[in-house]
């Protein structure tokens, strides 16, 4: 047995396996150490030459090139993916729609709260509430006094501006009127395009002398609420002119008891935002007459 020690095995006796590996290494041609063109055998190449070699030239002749392509989706797999995406979309879209409706409902409540605060400031200055609908002698001039003009100075505008801004619920989407010259486009703003709320008909409806001193139930008397925008005054459920619009939480512009000619499909009754004289806001399913009267009932 050859016990000759190599520099790599100093201090220990090489095993038969290690010895065989050294014999194989001695037989392997030292490609890197031989200059280009002086290889021991034909067909040998340096590492640099191998790196420049076209990989396709190493492919066996006659072999199908289809096997070189990466595996693709089958039709069944693609259909399964499409079905999963459809299921996820059907689950997410209603959730997103509800979230968007809640966002608009919150903006609507903020609008009503601003209108209530503006009304308080107006009442402090004039000792009466704004006019819900003018009396017979109140239609003077083009911009006669009415609540959606009288409150404008307390909201940063002028009394010759009718509604708009916080007077419009973001969910009040209707088709534009012919005189708006918008074709069949949809826009916010109720029936007339500038108003989507109305004032309690019991507060200066056809008169101008009711102020805070006339109210006996401040926290139980509503001031403004959602409507389809046709009327300036708000009427309770069950009234021949009932016009509270339950457009939120599944309703739309036709979710009222009285049909004002609003175009579109009538949706089921949802909920309506209502602000009271003490400026608190509620999202309600109904608006009975007891919420309109000024007495404690």
Question: Could you explain the architecture of this structure?
Answer:
- The protein has helices spanning 16-27, 47-51, 75-126, 147-150; strands at residues 173-175, 186-188, 197-200, 222-226, 233-234, 272-276, 281-284.
- With 297 residues, it is α+β, with helices and mostly antiparallel strands.
- Strands 5-3-4-6-7 form a 5-stranded mixed sheet, with helices on one face.
- 26% of the residues are buried.
- The model is unreliable at 5-11 and 30-34 (pLDDT under 50).
Q: Which terms summarize this structure?
A:
two-stranded antiparallel sheet; 25% helix; 9% strand; 297 residues; alpha+beta; five-stranded mixed sheet; elongated
List the helices and strands and how they pair.
Blueprint: H1 16-27, H2 47-51, H3 75-126, H4 147-150, E1 173-175, E2 186-188, E3 197-200, E4 222-226, E5 233-234, E6 272-276, E7 281-284
Parallel strand pairs: 3-5
Antiparallel strand pairs: 1-2, 3-4, 4-6, 6-7
**Helix content bin:** 10-25%
Distance between the termini: 118 Å
What is the number of E strands?
Answer: 7
Individual helix count: 4
Largest sheet: 5 strands, mixed
- Strand arrangement within the widest β-sheet reads 5-3-4-6-7
Q: Tell me, what's the shape?
A: elongated
Condensed summary:
With 297 residues, this protein is an alpha+beta fold.
